């Protein structure tokens, strides 16, 4: 046990130069009222309550208290609604099915973080402020301390467990809330989760193919407008041009397909990476897992680009505006041919051009045959001249031989 030690402390004397400060004149108490009391004016909440008591409640304090309590509740409800409208920012309140409340926090990569925070109706459109409000609502509702205070006493088996939350599932869901808030408030993790949003993946699987569109005779715009709106969230360039309508101009249609054929997507697939085996400290295992994850990400990215390109090709092949635009271009070319330039010769029809071409071919053929016949005659004349010259030389030799004999 510690011993008590007494110390002798002496205070130094006051210096001789010290003087007591004088009290300022402004701090003096004012003189009393001449009549000995203050006059009271009939104003303020106390006077209003006095009038209510005497005029409306027959001097019954209990009736006045009930009236004041009802008024306070009415004003609180009004202010509560206005504050909720200002602070809620459209977050609202979603139902919590039993399946959602029974989520395992260890399987946090498989859970829908937007559903956990009650943001299923907003999802990737939810702002950071809305995420903050939704998290605060969920924390206030599912905090373990609040759940403990609301635990019925009949469920406890001992006085020592009174007020203690014995429902461990509430704690598990609270951990899911914390993890969802952590993911959605981190821009990088939220981008990874939005890339493989489970609701988006389900909608992606339901996109009809060419056979279904033709067999079911689906409307082009009702089918493809939601599809391109679904993928527009991944575009690095915003805003994304819409599909338009049946009367869209040629420039609008070409701009739309040019954008989607050069679509620049930020979508990635890190969220689907496999984790390194727990308890493994091997560097080789980590390198192998990282290499495998990198290869899988590249494969999924390539498949995603090919799938989107296939959707654009399908839309282009089924777009009714393309046929209309081609027909308009053909009519414009024909009108231009018919009109021609001022002073220029009249354009010939296709039939006239074919007849002239045929006639020219026949003339060329006749000319070629005439030239061929002329060449044959010239050849014959040349051969006859050669024979005549040969005969003349032979006769001359015979005459010379006869003269010599």
Can you give a write-up of this model?
- With 405 residues, this protein is an all-alpha fold.
- Among the domains are: 98-153 and 163-185, Helix Hairpins (Orthogonal Bundle), CATH 1.10.287.110; 200-335, no CATH class.
- 60% of the residues lie in helices and 0% in strands.
- The protein has 15 helices and no strands.
- The protein has helices spanning 45-55, 61-88, 98-101, 113-116, 128-142, 144-149, 168-184, 187-195, 198-205, 210-215, 220-231, 250-261, 283-318, 320-339, 350-404.
- The termini are far apart.
- Residues 153-165 have low confidence and may be disordered.
- GO terms for molecular function: Hsp70 protein binding; ribosome binding.
- Residues 112-197 form the J domain.
- Residues 1-37, 277-301, 328-405 are annotated as: Disordered.
């Amino acid at each position: 046990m510690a011993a008590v030690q007494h110390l002798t402390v002496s205070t130094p004397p006051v210096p001789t130069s010290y003087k007591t400060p004088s009290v300022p004149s402004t701090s003096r108490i004012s003189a009393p009222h001449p009549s000995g009391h203050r006059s009271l004016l009939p104003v303020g909440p106390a006077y209003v309550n006095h009038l209510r008591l005497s005029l409306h409640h027959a001097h019954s304090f209990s009736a006045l208290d009930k009236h004041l309590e009802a008024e306070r509740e009415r004003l609180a409800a009004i202010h509560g609604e206005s504050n909720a409208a200002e602070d809620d920012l459209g977050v609202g309140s979603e139902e919590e099915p039993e399946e959602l409340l029974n989520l395992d926090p260890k399987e946090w990569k498989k859970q829908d973080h937007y559903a956990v925070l009650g943001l299923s109706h907003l999802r990737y459109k939810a702002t950071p402020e809305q995420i903050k409000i939704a998290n605060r609502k969920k924390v206030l509702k599912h905090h373990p301390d609040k759940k403990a205070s609301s635990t019925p006493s009949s469920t406890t088996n001992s006085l020592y467990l009174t007020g203690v939350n014995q429902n461990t599932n509430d704690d598990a869901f609270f951990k899911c809330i914390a993890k969802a808030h952590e993911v959605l408030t981190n821009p990088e993790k939220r981008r990874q989760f939005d890339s493989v949003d489970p609701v988006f993946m389900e909608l992606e699987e339901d996109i009809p193919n060419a056979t279904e569109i033709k067999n079911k005779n689906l409307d082009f715009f009702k089918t493809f407008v939601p599809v391109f709106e679904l993928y527009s969230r991944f575009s690095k360039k915003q805003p994304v041009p819409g599909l338009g309508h049946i009367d869209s101009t040629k420039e609008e249609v070409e701009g739309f397909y040019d954008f989607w054929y050069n679509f620049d997507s930020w979508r990635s697939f890190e969220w689907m990476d496999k984790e390194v085996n727990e308890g493994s400290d091997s560097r080789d295992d980590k390198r192998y897992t990282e290499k495998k994850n990198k290869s899988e990400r590249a494969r999924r990215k390539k498949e995603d680009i090919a799938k989107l390109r296939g959707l654009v090709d399908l839309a282009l092949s089924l777009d009714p505006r393309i046929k209309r635009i081609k027909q308009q271009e053909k009519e414009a070319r024909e009108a231009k041919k018919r009109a021609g330039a001022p002073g220029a010769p009249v354009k010939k029809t296709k039939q006239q051009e074919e007849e002239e071409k045929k006639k020219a071919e026949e003339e060329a053929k006749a000319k070629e045959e005439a030239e061929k016949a002329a060449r044959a005659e010239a050849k014959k004349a040349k051969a006859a001249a050669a024979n005549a010259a040969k005969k003349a030389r032979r006769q001359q030799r015979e005459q010379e031989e006869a003269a010599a004999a």
